[in-house]
Amino acid sequence: MKAIVVEPPTRGVTVKDININISTLANDEVLIKTIATGICGTDRGIVSGLLKFSRPPVGKKELILGHEGLGQVIELGSEVKGLRKGDYVVPIVRRGCGKCSNCLVGRQDFCETGEFVEAGIRGLDGFMREYFIDKERYLVKIPDEIRDIAVLLEPLSNVVKAYNELMFCQRRMIWWCNDGSYNCRNVAIIGSGPIGNLFAMIFISQGFNVYILNKRDPSPTESFIAEKIGATFINTLKGLTLTKLDLIVDTSGHPMAFIPLINKLNKNGAVILFGTTGEEYATLTADLVTFLVENNILIFGSVNASKEDFENGVNFLSIWKSRFQTVLNKMITKVVKPDESESILTKKPAGEIKTIISWV
């Protein structure tokens, strides 16, 4: 069986044939044929050796890469009730520690022990392979009408979680506008990659005014996406005239991208930190701390997603299928076969928003 493997924390990636027994299933397991897998910055961070927390399963040297997956059910264990042969499914990424209260109730995205594993990232083989076996509880069923865009569900699930966290925290006061909508609230999203665009789509769907920020002019694809969803793309190197923001979403992971914007927040505003990176230093001044305190500014980080977030993501994709179909298609800027993936995983292609590996 063909698979894409790494040996973290060693730099490099290989496409190779591996031997995995897929002939027997436990009662609650499902055999899945991989249809597509997405490539993201986490994958490239592992391949580059920069993500030091990545590790293979216990007792192994190699890790099968890939946490953004879409597959089709081939065989079912005897106790699997919610799926049928031929169904399309997306697997969730993180599996809980089995100890803390959050993991015991299916909220492993809030694991308290840190002893979780994540498919294709740490301690658990991922989905960049021709077939894989998984338990029914970790699979999200995909309606046939959105299977062409369902490979976007994993990144979207993380966005859904962060959005829900924001709205939960902002119940600390009245945050909606005097007409009951959010059309008086301005959101600045730093970064125009797939996560940035998905954040833009979810906030626009809820009535917010959205600005997508980058340090360059938009590509033709980015211009198309921004126009179609109703967002404004801003090249910050040409100046930023925005003075009144209610929310900053950072998908870049660079402190110098979002810290200078914080003092543009209105009272009771918020900052979502989503991106991760390294090798950058920024100073938090006492004046900025005073601003945060005196204006009730909320700052929180968000990572991973629960099965509920995946299922809510299915609902968003189903709604967006008619409203944003061309946008979702445009977000997939390149499709490659597994044998072409090594160079793509090593270096991001120019103009990429989302690259997909097709396994069929």
TrEMBL record:
Its cofactor is Zn(2+). It comes from Saccharolobus caldissimus. GO terms for molecular function: D-glucose binding; glucose 1-dehydrogenase [NAD(P)+] activity; NAD+ binding; NADP+ binding; zinc ion binding. The keyword Metal-binding applies. CDD domains: glucose_DH (cd08230). This is Glucose 1-dehydrogenase. The keyword Transferase does not apply. It catalyses: D-glucose + NADP(+) = D-glucono-1,5-lactone + NADPH + H(+); D-glucose + NAD(+) = D-glucono-1,5-lactone + NADH + H(+). Residues 148-357 form the Glucose dehydrogenase C-terminal domain. Substrate binds at residues 42, 118, 154, 158, 304. The lineage of its organism: Archaea, Thermoproteota, Thermoprotei, Sulfolobales, Sulfolobaceae. One of its GO terms (biological process) is protein tetramerization. Catalyzes the NAD(P)(+)-dependent oxidation of D-glucose to D-gluconate via gluconolactone. Can utilize both NAD(+) and NADP(+) as electron acceptor. Is involved in the degradation of glucose through a non-phosphorylative variant of the Entner-Doudoroff pathway. Belongs to the zinc-containing alcohol dehydrogenase family. Glucose 1-dehydrogenase subfamily. HAMAP family: Glucose_DH. It holds the Pfam family Glu_dehyd_C. Residues 27-144 form the Alcohol dehydrogenase-like N-terminal domain. Keywords: Carbohydrate metabolism, Metal-binding, NAD, NADP, Nucleotide-binding, Oxidoreductase, Zinc. PANTHER family: L-THREONINE 3-DEHYDROGENASE. Its EC number is 1.1.1.47. InterPro entries: ADH-like_N, Glc_1-DH_arc, Glu_dehyd_C, GroES-like_sf, NAD(P)-bd_dom_sf, Zn_alcohol_dh. NADP(+) binds at residues 192-195, 214-216, 274-276, 302-304, 348.
